[in-house]
């Protein structure tokens, strides 16, 4: 199971809470992968994760817009590209081997999310924190 570490926090309470939910969804996916009799649930969890990713990105982009974050376009472009790749994987859950897709989705989302949170998300959070000070 994934453990949410304090070092993953970017210092914005709402965004940290949303990142934590993404981790919880990844852990739900892990439970469903580990219990491969839960095949029916896997596609639903992948869909829920994809939906929450869209929700989270919309909130994050609204926050950056509200603070006139100068790198919003580059940041949003990363969101768009990632969301498209998740959607592409998600689509495979309905036609291919859902178990294999779930393992790929989990690895891909976890890897991207951690890199993104610790990199790009920290940058906008630091910008907002400096402007708010
Ligand atoms: Fe982001």
UniProtKB/TrEMBL annotation:
Domain of life where this protein originates: Bacteria
InterPro entries associated with the record: Haemerythrin_Fe_BS, Hemerythrin, Hemerythrin-like, Hemerythrin-like_sf, Hemerythrin_metal-bd
Domain Hemerythrin-like per the UniProt entry, residue ranges: 12-126
Signal sequence residues: none
Keywords: Iron, Metal-binding, Oxygen transport, Transport
Cross-referenced Gene3D superfamilies: Hemerythrin-like
Molecular functions (GO terms): metal ion binding; oxygen carrier activity
PANTHER family for the chain: BACTERIOHEMERYTHRIN
Family stated for the protein in its record: Belongs to the hemerythrin family.
This protein's name: Hemerythrin family protein
């Amino acid at each position: 199971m994934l453990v949410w570490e304090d070092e993953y926090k970017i210092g914005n309470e709402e965004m940290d809470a949303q990142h934590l939910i993404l981790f919880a969804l990844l852990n739900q996916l892990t439970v469903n992968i580990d219990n491969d009799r839960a095949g029916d649930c896997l596609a639903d969890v992948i869909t829920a994760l994809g939906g929450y990713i869209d929700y989270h990105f919309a909130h994050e982009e609204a926050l950056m817009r509200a603070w006139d974050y100068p790198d919003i376009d580059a940041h949003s472009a990363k969101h768009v590209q990632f969301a498209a790749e998740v959607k592409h994987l998600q689509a495979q859950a309905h036609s291919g081997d859902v178990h294999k897709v779930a393992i790929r989705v989990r690895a891909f989302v976890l890897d991207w999310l951690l890199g993104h949170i610790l990199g790009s998300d920290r940058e906008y959070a630091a910008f907002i924190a400096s402007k708010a000070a």
